[in-house]
Amino acid sequence: MVGATVTSIIPGAAAFANKKIAILGMGISGVACLEVLQRATSAVVSIWDQKAAAVQKYQENNPNITAGANSDPAALAAAIIKWQPDLVVIAPAFAQTGLVWEKLTAAGIPLCSEIELAWQLRAQNSDGSYPQWLCVTGTNGKTTTVTMLAAMLEEAGFGGEAIGNIGLPAIGAVSQLPATPVRAFALELSSFQLAATYTMAPAGAVCLNLAADHLSWHGDLAAYAQAKSRIYERVEKFRIYPKEDNDVQQMLRETAAASAAPSIAYTLQAPAVGEIGLVRDPASGEILAVDRAYVKDPYQGAAELFSLADLAHLTSGCPCPPHLVKDALAAAALARAGGVPVECIRAALQKYQVEPHRLQIVGEWEGICWVDDSKATNGHAARAALAAQAGRPIVWIVGGDAKGADFTELVQAEKSRLAGVVVIGKDQEPWKKALADLEIPITYIAEPENPLRPAVAAARNLAKNGDTVLLAPACASLDQFSSYAERGRQFQAEVRQLVGEEQA
After folding, report:
1. E strand or H helix at 394, and its extent?
2. Tens digits of per-residue pLDDT, 292-318?
3. pTM, two decimal places
4. Angle of the 246-254 helix axis to the 221-229 helix axis, nearest 10
5. What's the sign of the alpha-carbon dihedral 375, 381, 382, 388?
């Protein structure tokens, strides 16, 4: 039962009294939803999954809880419908195009994401205030941007934990606040989460970019874009966007009726009034990021946020790639929306470290630079990784679960950068089609087990002094690896072993 103390901290908990809530998918977020619903509400909760093992251990600890599992989507949906829930909290494992989603929707049962549930069950600080939500989505760059943002919030003493599609599930973090007030959370939100999120009203939000991805989950690009655009609905303070991105601007137009919050652009060019962008200091020649949006009088001047020199430690002395600068600008724009002082932005970026497997330099041996960007799980991210290689010829390691993507346009746009290509993955047909007319060496790795060992060896044979070997697969990892992180770790291990053998 919910006590008075809990309901005073989580006002939204009262709305769940005696409601029947089905949790579908007992992964990390599903388990977190179960814990919060049982701790903070008097809802009647049931748990469901496609695998019996996923529900059994929770049923053992909760013998009175209704639980069900079935690998047949139709049978699983039918069992849930028979239980007659008021709401189903659905995990990303169940696609928008899938039979379970279809059956539940047709039965008139509302679906919500863990993020939606988190918004409804967020806790108040002791002074009655709610922490601000500062939200990031996009096809590429979400994690870098949200971790930069979290660093800025932490530097300002705002709390600043990075949650959502990164780190801890959002519902656990936002429903149980520490004694010290939290002023803001940095949330990374995927299209899977946004597709079933409908009342969230963040203080600030940004969509970094949009490119074809997860089409098999959403059905088509229009549905994917619609899910992403939800981040701009009901924004309370500022809607942030990349100035040169027409697709994101279209999202702003389509959601304008749902939010009256002003829009603020960021750009790699000199900013106009109401924007954040880059200028060259006439005295030092240094490139500076400046704010003409949040300052008191943008017509008279701008606030200096950071310099490109503050990002130099992230690229091991190489020129800072444009996408990394844009991520920093987006993070700074969101931080300013949340009230972060300008000095905290620079200090945070000076300390910031890029997350593993995102343009991570493994090392340089005999003039060949080895770069791990296993996190490039789609074509948009891979293109950014290719562009970041400062003009060096690239031996490109690609392949994996293509998620229905066609890579022909990507290859044609980037082929001038390439010195060779090595293809891994169980289904290599999309790459054979895309690479068909290239007049450079291409190696296809057929080994289903540990494909990166022969891939690294093949890349070494193709690379010359002055080249970069880049793992930027443009594909998901789950056809051959447990995660993109495992794929990156194996790549790094194979590179180091190969180099060690050569130097022995």
Report:
1. strand 394-398
2. 999 999 998 899 999 999 998 886 555
3. 0.79
4. 60
5. negative
